[in-house]
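Whether sequence alone determines local backbone shape is best considered at the level of individual chains. In the encoding step, the backbone of a single protein was reduced to a row of integers, each denoting a local shape. For completeness, the protein is quoted in full, as a sequence line and a line of structure tokens.
***
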Amino acid sequence: MMSTNFKRILKAGFTGFWRNGFISLSSILVMVIALMVIGSVIFTGAVLKTSLAELQNKADINVYFVTTADPVDIQAIKASLEKLPEVASVKYTSREQALENFKNKPGRTQGDIDALEILGENPFGASLNIIAKAPSQYAGISTFFRSKNFLSKEGDKLIERNDYERNSVAIAKLSKVLDTSNKVGTGVAFVMVILALAITFNTVRIAIYSAREEIAVMKLVGASNRYARGPFVIAGLMYGFVAGVAALILFVPITYSLGGVTANFFSSVNLFSYYGGNFWQIFAVLLGSGLLIGAVSSYLAVRRYLKV
């Protein structure tokens, strides 16, 4: 009996979907727009996350050593830094490499190089470039340097300066941007889902309104609420499925046309490549959202007509 009822509900749902072609098309179009907005939030979040990650990698601390610092002592400090849980990487630049970097820097004039030759010695000290795992962790790394007196075996100071204080304002702003973007992205996604549900609910109500007398007759002859509601929920699932597939197809030309633009403005972020590489995750989100919105909207919209 249950199997027979399910088949009847399924058949009635498919029949209602095709019979109300114009209303079905309207419902699908509204849901496609809603799913496109949800998909846009996903792509925007991916671009923003990657861009902020690149900015985060550009935030760093440079520690400059005195010219007399022994490379062995510097390597010992480097090893200590690499053991800190906050540190992602530490790059060592020798005095010789610092001198070469100065000479090869764009915009350097022959006069600058001649001035070095007049000095007769290398005025540059070695340095360490430190990158933290998160912008908020640079303060802890700076504290590491302030809490210790790094001295040579002879008791001379090794560190001339570090540029944390100079970069701390920019790092703090970057930290705030990262935190805010995460909260805003989550909030926007939540709002879009609610809006999509509300818009689809009202559109589906139009389809159900045209069948209100049919529902009343079904109730009068003894049909259960589940049986009366079933065909509309099936139709809602079909709206969601078709809308989800349509949104996935539409994103192919959209991401392809925008792929080069985003790759130029946001290095390493090509929307088309991202879409292809994460297709199944996006497929699950969009199709799942479409099915959920269609089913829930239909379930709620038909409720008022079950009271006979």
In short: Residues 67-157 form a domain with the Alpha-Beta Plaits fold (CATH 3.30.70.3040). The beta strands are 61-65, 87-93, 127-132, 159-162.
